[in-house]
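Q: Convert this sequence to structure tokens.
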Amino acid sequence: MMLLIVTLLNLLIPCRMYAEQLTEQQPNLNENETKLYSDLEVETLIDEISQAAIEAIEQAAGEAAKAAVLASLEREAAALREAARQQADATRWRLEAEIRQETIKATKKAGTKNAVIAGLICLLCGIAVGVSGTLAINK
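A:
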């Protein structure tokens, strides 16, 4: 008889086994156990949340300011690099112009020297030819 009662109770009453997974979340509080907060607790929670929000806003503002300063520094560095590149280009062009001016001066000097030498050679050859011709005619 007792065996029959225990068997019927096991079949009719659902009981959870250790290996059975929970399929629903167990509520922490039901409607009758709703926790009520006092005004002081609510104000304390609001103050704590407000303080945390203010700190988060200040931190975000600090990060934004830091990002703005870094972006400004990056732009300034890029401008300085560009100015240095332009300065290097200007220096290179100035040096090339100076080298060309020196080459032109040296070429003019060499041309003047060659012209003077050619003039002297022509003068001496002319004198030699004139004197030899005069001597040849007189003999």
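DSSP finds two helices and no strands in the chain.
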